Amino acid sequence: MPSLLTLSDVMGTGHHAAVTARVSRGKKVAVMGDGAVGLCGVIAAKRLGAEQIIILGRHPARIALARDFGATDVVSERAEAALEHVRKVTGGTGVHSILECVGSEDAMRTSILIARAGAAVGRVGVPHYEGTPASQQAFYRNISVGGGPASVRAYIETLLPDILEGRIHPDLVFDQTIGLDQVPAGYRAMNERQALKVMIRP
Question: 2-152 falls under which CATH superfamily?
């Protein structure tokens, strides 16, 4: 049941990022953010056949979960150090697909700068900025930026069989269960990074 619950939110959103970023078999993929959506993005990238999946995050428990889901490389640095690390693990080429699951200006800038020419960015992190960072680099290197709110209902038929047959386990993003009267505390726990994703049992 918890895995099915993710289809109404984080699993569908992570899958939307992967689809928008044109993840397919043999691609090199970077996932910006180690929250529940980013981790489900790792599941989605693995499911779509990505050859290399780089998780950009810095929380040890979440990184461990990302590796369980199929991440092949971890980049915990930020800014220029993150760019250098991604270049190193991709042999200097950058990635084909970027799943931007954060929404910050820095995350979008990094997404564009780690992309190889012709890459695609799937943006599902709600933007906390006005203009798209590094837009000239994106323009001159033919990098596509797409995405937005996920129509998760559209993906249920695609993802449901993999959950029912035990091929993917997005329920593992739930690390805390609370009652209905504890909802404010659950939001605080997620906001303060004390919980990854809270499940409510009325």
Answer: NAD(P)-binding Rossmann-like Domain (3.40.50.720)
